[in-house]
Amino acid sequence: MIQEEIINEIRKKCGNADLLTSVGWHFVYNGRHYFYISDKSDDNVLRFCVPHLIKASDYDSGLLAGAINETNRNVKFIKVMVLECGSVSIDYDYKLTSCKSAGAIVPHIINSLDFAANYFINKLKKL
């Protein structure tokens, strides 16, 4: 039931969401590609991510590390990381509680990821 509510909220905010059976739900917001990864083993945890924000090798490693660390320290609830494939990803994991509705949570998560992506990119430009 909660999965349907989450997908409906994604569609409300972003217009469309497509199921990719091997990964989860793909959608686009403000020109960026996002995934909602549904974990069958734990229905109480939501994971949203921007799987490929930038290519790490396009930046100086010190500059990149500084922007990642600053973003992780200053933007709550998100985690910026370099994946093994060389992409920089931003994740947001949320533990569901009975008092929160998908209508309140999903837009907050998407807005937080969008803010974090912009914050991170702006840090890369300034450092």
Question: Can you tell me about this structure?
Answer:
The protein is an alpha+beta fold and 127 residues long. 41% of the residues lie in helices and 32% in strands. It has a six-stranded antiparallel beta sheet. A hairpin with a 3-residue loop joins strand 1 and strand 2. Helix 2 packs antiparallel against helix 3. It is globular. The model has no long low-confidence stretch (mean pLDDT 90).
Question: Secondary-structure blueprint of this entry?
Answer:
Layout: H1 2-14, E1 18-20, E2 24-29, E3 32-38, E4 45-55, H2 61-74, E5 78-82, E6 87-95, H3 102-126
Q: Which key features would you list for this structure?
A:
six-stranded antiparallel beta sheet, 41% helix, alpha+beta, 3 helices, 127 residues
Biggest sheet, spatial arrangement of strands: 1-2-3-4-6-5
CA radius of gyration: 15 Å
How large is the count of helical segments?
3
Terminal CA distance: 45 Å
Enumerate the spans where pLDDT stays under 50 for 5 or more consecutive residues: none
Order of helices and strands: HEEEEHEEH
Please provide a brief summary of the model.
The chain has 127 residues and is α+β, with helices and mostly antiparallel strands.
